[in-house]
Design a protein that fits this description.
Blueprint lengths: L2 H28 L6 H40 L4 H14 L1 H19 L4 H32 L1
């Protein structure tokens, strides 16, 4: 594995975790009674950028290394299901995260003026932040399982 591939993998993991932390912070803040929309927008923006950049670095790593060097080893090893089931599921779930993060940003932009008159909007923001967080955690745990299958 080249230095750039290692850097892409490390960046993918760190940015993914940062994205999860950001979406969780939004979910936590939206679950309360007082909302600091400036802070929420900042955290949601960082989370969104983190998910997108994690997605891009994962794509680079997958195309340049995982697909040709790691995947065949997992499929030939003791835990071939780790790729067939877990990695495939992880890939499909992760596709949603950057788009959910954008949705949360859009809702937050709209909510500044509307949240007091539209309680359903607050509920939509809570659900979006919550689903994004839970899916992010699932994807993270799937990554940990895949890493274990490689060893």
């Amino acid at each position: 594995m080249t230095f750039i591939q290692q850097l892409a993998l490390i960046t993918h993991v760190l940015l993914g975790v940062l994205g999860v932390i950001g979406s969780y912070a939004c979910w936590l803040q939206l679950s309360g009674k007082n909302y600091n929309f400036r802070w929420l927008n900042t955290v949601a923006t960082v989370s969104c950028l983190s998910y997108w950049l994690s997605w891009l670095t994962a794509g680079y790593y997958y195309v340049t290394y995982y697909g040709t060097a790691v995947k065949p080893g997992i499929k030939a090893g003791a835990y071939p299901w780790a790729h067939t089931i877990v990695m495939e599921s992880k890939e499909h779930i992760f596709i949603l995260l950057p788009f959910l993060a954008i949705l949360l940003l859009v809702l937050l932009q709209y909510a500044k003026r509307q949240v007091t008159t539209h309680p359903d909007l607050l509920s939509a923001m809570r659900w979006t932040a919550g689903v994004t967080t839970v899916l992010g955690i699932v994807v993270t745990l799937a990554g940990v399982l895949i890493t274990g299958a490689v060893r």
